[in-house]
């Protein structure tokens, strides 16, 4: 799962949300309810199932909220959130921390997934079973500095030489086609979407190198929250009960997604019927037990995770040393 955004919309910074990029655009249709706009991070996918379930089951309506879900501009939802043009946005820690450094008063109020579910995916015939095996191979990505820092760290941690990995920019492409053409050997994807699409839907024989499982090896990658749910400091200050009500209804939606993945798949497909039903059903089942873990309910954020990831960014000169990650998140609006 990568960023499939709508280029025709252009980059929205401080302008009003006059149009949405392919989102369903439909609210709950509640009379006398508070209008709420939620901006997704990408096109609708199973990471968003809890929002669609909360709306379909009337949890937002019961909370007095009329929720409209839209897709982002190419800049993502945080600029619109910071500008006051939306109440909530789905984002990631790697976007939110730099945004705060640049002055955007945005705050993470819930972790949508308990842990990072991204991996490198490689066709099995490339002979790559560990990160060190990427020496002499080609990585295809967006060309961002974070990608290189992650991959360099992963390869070095496994005893390899990162300088022997070739980097090429590929953007949003059909990974299957690029693999078949030999354009690259590895890409960074989410296990719950593209790995399932390549392996279980398209039938490719692939190897994965998960980021989160690397935690067991000293010096490897930190865990981080991707995706997360963000709001603005302005909304927290002006309407804290709205934030609390939205999160309570959303938590119910994600609890439903956890206990009833079939229902989660149906709710998402009803809102985005263009999606592949088999992929959505398999993905919903994969994510069902990842919306929380044994120690934390849905949405809860671990300060150590934020500290570890912020430290990784700072160590790689991707975040200013004076950025305090402790102000970037709060759990005080979560149920209970």
Description of the structure:
It is a single chain. This protein folds into two domains: 212 residues, Periplasmic binding protein-like II (D-Maltodextrin-Binding Protein, domain 2), CATH 3.40.190.10; 99 residues, D-Maltodextrin-Binding Protein, domain 2 (3-Layer(aba) Sandwich), CATH 3.40.190. The chain has twelve helices and ten strands. Helix content is 35%, strand content 15%. The N terminus is likely disordered. It is of the alpha/beta class and 336 residues long.
> In angstroms, what separates the terminal alpha carbons?
32 Å
Assign a percent range to the helix content.
25-40%
Q: Kindly identify the CATH topology of the largest domain.
A: D-Maltodextrin-Binding Protein, domain 2
Biggest sheet record: 5 strands, mixed
What's the domain count?
2
Assigned CATH class of the largest domain: Alpha Beta
Low-confidence stretches: 1-22
What overall form do the CA principal axes indicate? globular
Structural class: alpha/beta
Number of strand segments: 10
Largest sheet strand order: 2-1-3-10-4
- CATH homologous superfamily of the largest domain, by name? Periplasmic binding protein-like II
Proportion of residues in extended strands: 5-15%
Total of DSSP H or I helical runs spanning 4+ residues:
12
Order of helices and strands: EHHEHEHEEEHEHEHEEHHHHH
Mean pLDDT: 89
Please tell me how large the radius of gyration is.
19 Å
CATH architecture of the largest domain: 3-Layer(aba) Sandwich
């Amino acid at each position: 799962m990568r960023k499939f955004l709508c280029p025709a919309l252009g980059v929205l910074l401080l302008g009003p949300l006059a149009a949405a990029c392919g989102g369903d655009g439909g609210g709950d249709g509640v009379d006398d309810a508070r209008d709420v706009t939620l901006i997704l991070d990408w096109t609708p996918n199973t990471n968003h199932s809890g929002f669609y379930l909360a709306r379909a089951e009337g949890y937002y309506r019961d909370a007095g909220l009329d929720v409209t879900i839209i897709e982002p501009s190419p800049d993502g939802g945080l600029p619109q959130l910071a500008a006051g043009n939306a109440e909530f946005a789905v984002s990631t820690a790697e976007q939110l921390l730099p945004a705060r450094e640049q002055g955007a008063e945005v705050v993470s109020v819930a972790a949508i997934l308990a842990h990072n579910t991204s991996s490198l995916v490689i066709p099995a015939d490339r002979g790559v079973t560990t990160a060190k095996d990427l020496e002499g191979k080609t990585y295809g990505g967006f060309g961002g500095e974070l990608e290189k820092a992650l991959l360099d760290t992963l390869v070095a941690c496994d005893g390899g030489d990162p300088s022997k990995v070739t980097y090429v920019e590929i953007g949003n492409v059909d990974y299957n086609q690029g693999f078949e053409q030999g354009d690259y050997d590895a890409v960074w994807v989410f296990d719950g979407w593209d790995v399932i699409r390549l392996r279980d839907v398209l039938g490719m024989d692939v190897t994965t190198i998960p980021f989160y499982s690397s935690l067991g090896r000293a010096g490897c990658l930190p865990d981080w929250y991707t995706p997360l749910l963000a709001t603005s400091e302005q909304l927290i200050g002006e309407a804290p009960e709205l934030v609390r009500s939205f999160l309570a209804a959303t938590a119910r939606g994600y609890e439903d997604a956890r206990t009833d993945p079939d229902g989660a798949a149906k709710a998402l497909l009803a809102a985005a019927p263009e999606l592949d039903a088999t992929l959505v059903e398999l993905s919903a089942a994969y994510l069902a037990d990842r919306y929380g873990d044994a120690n934390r309910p849905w949405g809860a954020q671990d300060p150590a995770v934020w500290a570890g990831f912020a430290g990784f960014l700072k160590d790689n000169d991707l975040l200013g040393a004076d950025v305090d990650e402790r102000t970037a998140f709060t759990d005080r609006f979560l149920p209970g």
